[in-house]
What we know:
Elements: E1 15-17, E2 28-33, H1 43-57, E3 65-69, H2 73-85, E4 88-94, H3 99-107, E5 111-115, H4 127-137, E6 141-142, H5 151-158, H6 160-167, E7 174-178, H7 183-195, E8 200-206, H8 211-217, E9 249-253, H9 255-269, H10 275-286, E10 296-301, H11 315-320, H12 331-337, E11 346-347, H13 352-362, E12 366-371, E13 374-380, H14 381-390, E14 409-410, H15 416-422, E15 429-433, E16 439-443, H16 444-452
Parallel strand pairs: 2-10, 3-4, 3-6, 4-5, 7-8, 7-10, 8-9, 11-12, 14-15
Antiparallel strand pairs: 1-2, 12-13, 15-16
Family: Belongs to the cysteine synthase/cystathionine beta-synthase family.
Cofactor: pyridoxal 5'-phosphate
Pfam families: CBS, PALP
Amino acid sequence: MWYNNILETIGHTPMVKLNKIVKDIPATVLAKIETTNPGNSIKDRMALKMIEDAEASGKLKPGGTIIEGTSGNTGMGLAIAAVIKGYKCIFTSTDKQSKEKFDALRAFGAEVIVCPTNVDPEDPRSYYSVSSRLEREVPNSWKPNQYDNLSNSQAHYEQTGPEIWEQTEGKITHLVVGVGTGGTISGTARYLKEKNPNIQVLGIDTYGSVFKKYKETGEFDKNEIYPYITEGIGEDFLPQNVDFSLIDYFEKVSDKDAALMTREIARKEGIFAGNSTGSAIAGVLQMKDRFKEGDVVVVIFPDHGTRYLGKMYNDDWLRDRGFLKDEKLTARHIIDKKENQEIITIDCEKTVLEAINTIKSLNISQIPVTQKGMVIGKITESDILNSLIENPGIKSQPVKNISTSPFPFVDLNTSIDKISGMINKDNIAVLVEDERGNIEIITQYDIINAISA
């Protein structure tokens, strides 16, 4: 058997029982693995449905341009369908999204316009507003508007809901879904609740988003809105695809818990999933008291981990945000293991001869060059040797005449891996400011000493 094109492979995704990561939950927890769709995400389902419905209604015409605001996954689904059906694509997105997502969209020939995150949806710079303006300006264009286009939720009513019902043999008791556009949770929930109104539908929200408070109070509170890191869930407005009457409860998950859980899923279950999956499983663990023995909990795993390699799966990215404990050696550890000695510097107006004498007397190979106490450059044995060969009389000239770019600065939490990568034949050390404001120098010898200590 074969398929006529890649679009025919969308859907019929597998369901996998989770084990180690949910060992403290008495229920059976099943993951609906949407990464097996051709675009590696659940958004392929609704992207194709929106296009087909627009074609049927005449809104999308042959040779047209699809313009959409997307965090990446919807864009991927639209881009793949556009390749097969002969459309162009222009996508707007926010600067908080991972670079891998944009690279993937461009691989399918799409144009990607990156817009600022921290602006209101009505702001002309927002990715919503820019996509709307482009739709008005580009001839023969169509904007799917995944947030308010009900073909989004209809795709999940027609596909995702029936698949889950069949795969669990109607035994599902809880559905857990991260809520962004609302299409996945609302369409799937509508089908499942028609089959069994007692099924509990649990939405995962993030801090900085309005969904949970709106569900519980009916109030749209702008004070709830602030920038967040988690991708794929939460919003600062109310999409028409979010049917709050179908969602029984919202659980909020922090950026940190979502990011760390994303990694844990790969390490404990061997499933390479994205950031919103981390949110969903963290939410399940936070809600463990809602589940009992005999329950069947289905969690949607919307997209693939490859789109987050530079973020949630990157130790330095996590460490920079304070999400990761210092499991590896860092600049702090290297400084702590060094002998307590004050860093030697030389003022830029001192002579080269004075620099030579300092290097000889202290048996060192490099000196940071300062001006009014600030590090502005460096001088090394090689710099001095090369300068003397060219001009022996340079000994009487100021150090600033032969100093080179300063050693790079790193912070105390920079990993030893990153520091090692920065030290090479052209750059033999890095500088770090300790907690007292003192400047310390780290050389290759210091790294070796810290590792072997």
